[in-house]
Specification:
The protein is mainly alpha-helical. The protein is built from 29 helices and eight strands. The chain has a four-stranded mixed sheet. The protein has a two-stranded antiparallel sheet with strand order 1-8. Helix 21 runs antiparallel to helix 22 and helix 27 crosses helix 28. The radius of gyration is 46 Å and the shape is elongated. The two termini are 75 Å apart.
Length: 678
């Protein structure tokens, strides 16, 4: 058993190492600028001077505005093709010799040549390009001819349509327009100016590249800001520039490796301290794989959500409901474990959070609020009230810190109240999360135990109607066991619930149990073996009922173990007395077990046996009750039924004293009332 626990302990240590590695892996890779600042807010640190010369960088908005301005007023480049003019006039002459000379006088040829030369000299532009330039509010372009650029007005260019209209409309009076139109002038008009995309993009890129990235320089040793000063726009830009310079220097591979090493050492150190705490004060978590995974997931998920929120600036970090960690941890474990889990979580998250000191202070206060409100968790309404007190704590702490640091009501960011309100709403879902955790990890919360303890629960109601004697016995056992549990530090609510359900299997054959009989004992007609088997069957039958009703495993364990691997002493001893020479089959008289393996199941076994035996006492004196308690419990110890339970001899003595006190109260004698004499 010890070897097995040691193996699990080593395995959980590996889980802790893996979790620490994952948290460190998700940490921001760049060296973090040590100062956090906002425009319009006071500087919270001491005097800051420039460590070295650095430029004052423009903001992204300023650079974007300048880029947009350069792009808007940029004059694109177009190239003129002189060959198109030459080819057009050549084509005109060839067509004239071949066809037009017979019907058109030479004067028309001369006029068309002169106008074509004039049009091509000014330039013919594609109509789509002209419309695009005008739509983009360009008035000029750069015209390239033999790699020499000259600015030209867009209005001075022709399109094929306007060039044709120009030639037709400018015809002199001695020529006939009809004859001119028959010359098919369109055949000789073609765009000789085209967009030079490569040159335009190159020149535009050069202009954008040459935009200054800074507006000035800060000299080494120059004063930047001092504590309490309001950060105006100019100071904000200087601080922002210093941060850019710092983080760019931190981007080197050697420096990056040092930063990464520091992060991992810090994270591993915090996680190791948490492991040491559990090892010293709550080892049952480290010796249980399920428990270790649960607490590590609480820490890991919180850290990853924090890193995502900070890195991508998805929202304000205080929207994240960090209080859920101590709430769910307290629901299933002790307050100390919940507190240390919460502190470990917020310590790791503070390494990523803006204003880490304020964050750590607020989250520590929130954790204490949770533990105070959930000290005795028994109702779901406590979760709602706890969420409300968390909201109040956030608001009061934030206002206090702001007034303390700023000394001015105008420094309060009222939007923070909205963030705290969203946090409050998310905390309301902790009830659903607790239910999911119960189903996923097989836990049982105090709230669930309280609900199961309601005697109007269908199973308990049926037990009270079918087996009233057994029901009363279960109630008495729950009183004995819960009081003993509170004295030795066991789970009171768990044992109270387990006591109410431990004998539900008797509903299958209620009359075979003495507490439900009314003068007739059906065992008189059966053999000792048959009677023993019927009595023993109430354990597996109870387990079947509990599993069908989907009761938590922790409650079913009480049904399995309340007799352990003990014997039905009445029928076993009766058989031995009646047939001393006959060989006996031990299994027919032995419960299937297992033996109790927790404090709670061990207490229930003792309480069940003592309460049942106490009904057979002829007189209830201190001596008779104590003798009965000692005989029953000592017999269980001698039979080895309690060897797997983590109870000490001191616990056993305390339990005996509690049983003594309670049984005396239950069976106290009452004085008889005198009759009134007539």
């Amino acid at each position: 058993m010890k070897f097995k626990k040691l193996n699990i302990r080593v395995e959980t240590l590996i889980y802790f190492i893996i979790t620490a590695f994952l948290i460190g892996w998700f940490f921001p890779r760049d060296g973090k600028f040590r100062y956090v600042f906002y425009e319009g807010k006071p500087w919270r640190y001491g005097l800051l001077t420039a460590p070295s010369d650095f430029p004052i960088y423009k903001t992204e908005g300023e650079i974007k505005t300048e880029k947009d301005s350069v792009t808007r007023f940029f004059e694109p480049y177009y190239r003129i093709n002189p060959e198109i003019k030459t080819n057009a006039i050549k084509k005109l002459r060839e067509n004239y010799k071949a066809n037009l000379s017979q019907k058109v006088p030479p004067a028309y040829l001369q006029y068309i040549e002169r106008r074509l030369a004039e049009v091509y000299e000014k330039g013919i532009l594609l109509a789509i390009d002209q419309d695009k330039l005008l739509r983009e509010q360009h008035t000029r372009i750069n015209l390239l001819e033999e790699n020499i650029s000259q600015p030209k007005e867009i209005q001075g260019f022709y399109t094929v349509k306007t060039a044709y209209e120009f030639i037709i409309d400018k015809i002199p009076s001695y020529l006939d327009k009809t004859i001119l139109q028959s010359c098919d002038i369109n055949l000789y008009l073609k765009e000789n100016i085209s967009y030079d995309k490569e040159m335009s993009e190159k020149v535009l890129a050069d202009k954008i590249q040459n935009i200054p990235q800074s507006t000035g320089m800060v000299q080494a040793g120059e004063r930047i800001v001092d504590r309490g000063e309001i950060i105006d726009m100019h100071t904000y830009n200087i601080l922002r520039s210093l941060k850019i310079v710092y983080e760019s220097k931190a981007g080197g591979s050697q420096r990056q490796g040092i930063v990464l090493l520091g992060q991992f050492i810090l994270v591993f150190g915090i996680m190791f301290c948490f492991w040491q705490y559990l090892s010293s004060f709550n080892p049952r978590i480290l010796t249980n794989r399920r428990n270790s995974i649960f607490v590590l997931l609480c820490i890991l998920v919180s850290c990853i959500l924090t890193e995502i929120a900070v890195r991508f600036e998805l929202s304000n970090i205080y929207i994240l409901p960090y209080a859920i960690v101590p709430i769910v941890t307290r629901t299933f474990f002790s307050s100390h474990t919940a507190l240390f889990t919460h502190l470990t979580t917020v310590l790791l998250c503070s390494l990523m959070a803006p204003f880490p000191h304020e964050f750590l202070l607020m989250q520590t206060i929130i954790g204490l609020i949770v533990l105070v409100n959930l000290k005795d968790l028994s109702q779901r309404s406590q979760l709602i009230s706890c969420a409300f007190f968390i909201f109040l704590a956030y608001v009061i702490t934030y206002l206090s810190i702001t007034l303390y640091q700023g000394g001015d009501y105008n420094k309060i960011r009222w939007i923070m109240l909205l963030y705290f309100g969203i946090n409050f709403i998310l905390l309301m879902f902790s009830y659903i999360l607790i239910y999911m955790m119960e189903k996923t990890f097989g836990y049982v919360s105090p709230i669930t135990l309280v609900e199961l303890s309601n005697i109007n629960n269908p199973i308990l109601k049926r037990l009270s109607e079918t087996c009233p004697g057994t029901f009363q016995h279960s109630l008495q056992v729950s009183i004995l066991a819960s009081e003993a549990a509170s004295r030795i530090g066991a789970d009171t609510q768990l044992i109270r619930t387990g006591a109410l359900y431990h004998d539900i299997g008797k509903m299958v054959n209620p009359v075979f149990f003495t507490e439900n009989q009314k003068g007739v004992n059906p065992h008189n007609q059966l053999s000792f073996e048959e009677s023993a088997q019927i009595i023993i069957s109430h354990v597996p039958e109870g387990v079947k009922m509990a599993e069908k009703a989907q009761l938590p495993q922790a409650v079913i364990d009480f049904i399995r173990t309340h007799h352990g691997c003990g014997k039905t002493k009445y029928f076993y001893n009766s058989f031995k007395n009646k047939y001393p020479d006959k060989e006996i089959d031990e299994e027919l008289f032995t419960y299937p077990g297992p033996n109790p393996f927790t404090k709670e199941t061990a207490i229930l076994m003792m309480a069940d046996s003592v309460e049942a035996a106490s009904r057979s006492l002829k007189e209830y004196t201190d001596e008779s009750i104590m003798e009965l308690i000692n005989r029953i419990i000592d017999s269980q110890i001698e039979d080895g039924l309690l060897k797997d339970a983590p109870v000490t001899f001191r616990d056993v003595e305390t339990i005996k004293k509690v049983f003594m006190e309670k049984l005396k109260t239950m069976y106290h004698t009452r004085i008889s009332y005198p009759e009134l004499k007539k």
